[in-house]
């Protein structure tokens, strides 16, 4: 299996552009608009939710540029690469961003990470495969087990202000690590605090080892101290 990641070229875009796209209103309105042409031209569609199959909106393998608010992953295969196929994942993580990716992503499905209730609410997303692929276990509360992803978590995202502690045992036991959403991205009134780990190595945990999650920093091992100065957009790449 070959897996490629394309890091988004993250650019701020002006508030005027935002209102032009009809995204005024709640600061935490999360969306991604995909365009069939380069440089935000051509047929476009605004996505606000998980979309496992872009052919439903006639956008399969069509998106060549996109602008969004929040954390979005664009997958080469349908269903977020549940089939563990050869896969390209383009991920964009910022308060707001635009990317002209051409045919690099060949997007057939897309989904966001973070809370369904608010852009910067406290939340965690755990994924079956590296780089946010496959099945997911997500939530905003303690989980004494991680359901279907028991001993299968291979990447994760946290958002909001709360740190989370991840354990290798059920019921908050075993080896553990605390993760702060220490990155900060802001654009006008939109704020996003987050951290992401493409694979468990970066957490210092074995792959497929997480079995429970607790809110708060309950471990001696702390990643992304809150003391880190909020560094803005240039921290994202
Ligand atoms: C997109 O815009 C950039 C900057 O204005 C320009 O250099 C580039 O040629 C454009 N690409 C296409 C395919 O129009
Ligand atoms: C894009 O994906 C489709 C099927 O999802 C595939 O047939 C095509 O070869 C892919 N193109 C590129 C450039 O990877
Ligand atoms: C979550 O777990 C932590 C650590 O065990 C505990 O301090 C906290 O009270 C729990 N919160 C809830 C809502 O159960
Ligand atoms: Ca595709
Ligand atoms: Ca796994």
UniProtKB/TrEMBL annotation:
UniProt keywords, alphabetically: Signal
Keyword Signal listed: yes
Gene3D superfamilies in UniProt: Crystallins
Family matches, as InterPro entries: G_crystallin-like (IPR011024)
Endpoints of the signal sequence: 1-19
UniProt name for this protein: Uncharacterized protein LOC108665173
Organism listed in the record: Hyalella azteca (Amphipod)
Gene name linked to the record: LOC108665173
């Amino acid at each position: 299996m070959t897996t490629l990641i394309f890091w988004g070229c993250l650019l701020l875009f002006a508030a005027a552009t935002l209102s032009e796209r009809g995204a005024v209103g709640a600061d935490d309105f999360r969306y991604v608009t995909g365009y069939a042409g380069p440089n935000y031209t051509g047929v476009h569609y605004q996505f606000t939710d998980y979309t496992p199959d872009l052919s439903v909106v006639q956008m399969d393998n069509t998106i060549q540029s996109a602008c969004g608010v929040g954390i979005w992953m664009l997958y080469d295969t349908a269903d977020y690469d549940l089939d563990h196929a050869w896969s390209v994942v383009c991920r964009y993580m910022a308060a707001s961003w635009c990317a002209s990716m051409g045919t690099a992503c060949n997007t057939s499905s897309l989904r966001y990470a973070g809370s369904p209730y608010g852009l910067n609410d406290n939340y965690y997303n755990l994924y079956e495969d590296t780089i946010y692929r496959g099945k997911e276990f997500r939530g905003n509360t303690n989980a004494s087990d991680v359901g279907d992803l028991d001993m299968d978590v291979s990447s994760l995202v946290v958002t909001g202000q709360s740190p989370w502690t991840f354990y290798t045992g059920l019921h908050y036991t075993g080896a553990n690590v605390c993760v702060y959403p220490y990155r900060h991205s802001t654009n006008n009134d939109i704020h996003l605090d987050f951290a992401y780990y493409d694979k468990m190595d970066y957490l210092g945990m074995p792959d497929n080892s997480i079995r429970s999650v607790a809110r708060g920093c309950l471990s001696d091992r702390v990643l992304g101290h809150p003391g880190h100065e909020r560094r803005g957009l240039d921290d994202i790449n």
